[in-house]
Recover the amino acids of this structure.
């Protein structure tokens, strides 16, 4: 499946401005620290896996929380739609998120 | 169950979709982890047929709706699916069955759609394509008792209006709300003529996950769906069981406990069961008197089948453990902990518990690989599992080690030379499994990517009912699949060892075959007696001990000696060690072959496995014998 267009919507200056303001920028889901929430922007995975993930709720605008890492550091457990799913780092790297916040800092997610 | 209305069922029937007429076949559809199989067991009772769909490895379950007193209706269980797009084999099978295009499966006239009400927002996504099929559908919100207990709620009337089909709250584990299903089927069955659709419902136009999700979110909002607070216990338990230090330690403790129980309870249980079977055989044999009929029935059929039946207690015990692990939710955590290690050998975390079970018996291990969704990983796991040192190898290992290895201490009294040889045989099997897994994953089962998506279900107490259903089901599959093949193989072996009539084992067809293959196995240090043993132990590995006992007992030169002394008299150290190495690698197990055939739905894979493991066994035994012969000299 074709990845949902990402960066195309944002001008370079806009992205710079946002990064400077320290608010948010696009990240790989795998980079998020534990306890943070990200909003899914796009997925870029081979057909079947992408499809399964999207059916499991990994669609644009869905909120994903990083719950914990496996004792060996990988895979990582994510919480989406109130259920938990573990993904390996290489899978989570292909999921782009924005707007990440620490969950305990309230509902500070911005809608794009 | 009758039409009693004391349960918590809510059934709302606002708008009728078109009705296809009389109902005979009902399809059970639902996403993975929706509690679908529990409901299937509940609705059908134990009378169900398990097979594979033609040409694929997807399990097909069909049963009569006896559980709700509608034995005239057939329930078809579909594989757990997220959508009806043909991305996965499971979904392709589901689409074919729902459209009535699957050969051998009747076209369904109605659908029971099971959704986990704890995750309704996500699971509703499946409703869109399923309702789009236009068949009479009943939506079942499973685990609604749990949802309500945890503060969740949903307006079922509004949901039924939104979906245009009746909606009922049920609990498959408790059996609540089953009368809603009876009610639905009765109503639909009465409607002889097609009823035109009265209302219309809105389904997403674009058939992609994103629009399904928007549609599902819209409906959950409009039906005031409030997700239950996630189980605080699950979080707390995970804090310990997935802890950086405690997690792996508890994991190892669980693994160790499973082993301890399987070997300390399962083994004596199997032995006792074996004694009972043999005694029964002798008793019946005495009744029949002497003759070829008695010999065919007792030495052929009874002993052959008994040699496989003795594994049943152990197999059931393993299934019980796997069942407890799976139903409680720990299996997924074990997979999470083991994934890192398993990945380094080209498999994934879900392969760990099956491979572990293979140390007791490959049969339950291979049947447990169904939890591995990725087909390549699953096949790789099936193909390497028989390398693990199963308990059927122990009799021949122990016999040869006791006969040929002196009990010299290496590290004090605890670890002697015998233990070292035994341990190296375990290591040998493990290394062969690893190497084969790597080989497979880089050749015929090469994966373009390594997807590993592991859902972590909430912890739950396993119910006795679901565990016993699982045991009966798996036990039946083993007996039916392995039993038929084993019966055929033992009959052939009996005929080969008794023709021509009035001969003994050495002059029978199989005895001559043993002599015939002697030149081929001589470089391995084997003689024709071992050759006969290799041929008869195709049924099950431990059969070779009995065969060798018979052969040496009948030979005047070794008659007076015990089996160990006779072996020492007849074999070199090289030959003896080559024999155990041969058994470490060779797939001398008809049950495994039969189960692999069932799980891969083709004779190609077990044939490949048999030849591959046989070649490996021959080469390794050859190397062992040659090395030892040269060292000793």
């Amino acid at each position: 499946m074709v990845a949902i267009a990402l960066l195309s919507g944002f001008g370079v200056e806009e992205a710079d401005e946002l990064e400077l303001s320290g608010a948010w920028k696009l990240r790989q889901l795998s980079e998020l620290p534990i306890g943070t929430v990200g909003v899914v922007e796009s997925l870029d995975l081979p057909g079947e896996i992408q499809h399964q993930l999207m059916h499991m709720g990994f669609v644009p605008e869905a909120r994903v929380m990083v719950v914990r890492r496996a004792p060996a550091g990988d895979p990582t457990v994510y919480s989406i739609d109130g259920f938990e799913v573990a993904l390996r780092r290489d899978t989570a790297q292909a999921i782009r998120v924005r707007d990440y916040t620490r969950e305990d800092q309230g509902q500070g997610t911005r809608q794009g | 169950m009758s039409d009693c209305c004391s349960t918590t069922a809510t059934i709302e029937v606002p708008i009728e979709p078109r009705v296809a007429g009389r109902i005979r076949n009902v399809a059970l559809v639902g996403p993975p982890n929706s509690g679908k199989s529990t409901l299937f067991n509940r609705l059908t009772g134990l009378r169900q047929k398990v097979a594979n769909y033609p040409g694929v490895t997807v399990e097909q379950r069909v049963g009569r709706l006896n559980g709700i007193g509608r034995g005239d209706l057939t329930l078809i269980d579909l594989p757990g699916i997220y959508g009806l797009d043909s991305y996965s084999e499971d979904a392709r099978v589901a689409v074919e069955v729902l459209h009535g295009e699957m050969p051998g499966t009747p076209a369904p006239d109605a659908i029971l759609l099971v959704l986990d009400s704890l995750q309704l927002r996500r699971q509703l996504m499946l409703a869109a394509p399923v309702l789009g099929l236009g068949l009479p559908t009943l939506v079942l919100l499973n685990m609604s008792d749990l949802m309500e207990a945890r503060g969740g709620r949903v307006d079922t009337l509004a949901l039924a209006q939104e979906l245009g089909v009746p909606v009922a709250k049920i609990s498959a584990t408790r059996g609540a709300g089953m009368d809603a299903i009876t009610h639905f089927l009765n109503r639909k069955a009465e409607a002889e003529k097609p009823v035109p659709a009265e209302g219309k419902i809105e389904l997403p136009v674009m058939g992609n996950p994103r629009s399904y999700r928007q549609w599902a979110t819209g409906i959950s909002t409009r039906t005031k769906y409030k997700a239950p607070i996630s189980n605080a216990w699950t979080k707390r338990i995970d804090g310990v069981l997935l802890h950086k230090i405690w997690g792996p330690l508890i994991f190892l403790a669980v693994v160790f406990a499973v082993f301890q129980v399987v070997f300390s309870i399962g083994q004596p249980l199997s032995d006792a069961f074996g004694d009972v079977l043999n005694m029964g055989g002798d008793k019946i044999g005495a009744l029949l008197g002497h003759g070829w009929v008695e010999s065919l029935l007792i030495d052929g059929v009874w002993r052959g089948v008994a040699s496989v039946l003795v594994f049943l207690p152990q197999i059931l015990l393993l299934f019980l453990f796997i069942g407890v692990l799976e139903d409680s939710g720990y299996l997924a955590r074990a997979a999470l902990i083991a994934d890192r290690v398993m990945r380094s050998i080209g498999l994934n975390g879900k392969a760990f518990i099956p491979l572990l079970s293979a140390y007791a018996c490959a049969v339950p291990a291979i049947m447990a690989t169904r939890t591995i969704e990725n087909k390549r990983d699953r096949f790789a796991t099936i193909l390497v599992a028989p390398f693990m040192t199963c308990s059927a190898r122990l009799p021949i290992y122990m016999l040869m080690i006791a006969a040929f290895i002196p009990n010299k201490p290496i590290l004090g009294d605890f670890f002697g030379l015998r233990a070292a040889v035994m341990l190296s045989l375990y290591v040998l099997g493990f290394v062969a499994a690893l190497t084969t897994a790597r080989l497979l994953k880089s050749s015929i089962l090469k994966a373009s990517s390594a997807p590993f998506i592991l859902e972590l279900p909430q912890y739950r107490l396993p119910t006795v009912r679901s565990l016993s259903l699982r045991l009966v089901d798996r036990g039946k599959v083993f007996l039916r699949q392995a039993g038929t093949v084993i019966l055929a193989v033992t009959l052939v072996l009996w005929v080969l060892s008794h023709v021509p009539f009035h001969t003994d084992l050495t002059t029978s067809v199989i005895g001559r075959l043993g002599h015939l293959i002697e030149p081929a196995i001589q470089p391995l240090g084997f003689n024709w007696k071992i050759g006969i043993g290799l041929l008869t132990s195709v049924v099950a590995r431990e059969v070779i001990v009995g065969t060798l006992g018979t052969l040496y007992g009948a030979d005047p030169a070794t008659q007076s000696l015990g089996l160990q002394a006779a072996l020492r008299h007849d074999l070199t150290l090289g030959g003896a060690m080559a024999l155990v190495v041969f058994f470490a690698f060779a797939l001398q197990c008809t049950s495994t072959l039969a189960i692999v055939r069932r799980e891969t739905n083709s004779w190609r894979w077990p044939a490949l496995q048999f030849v591959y493991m046989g070649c490996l066994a021959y080469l390794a035994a050859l190397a062992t014998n040659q090395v030892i012969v040269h060292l000793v000299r």
In short: The first strand of chain A starts at residue 27 and ends at 28.
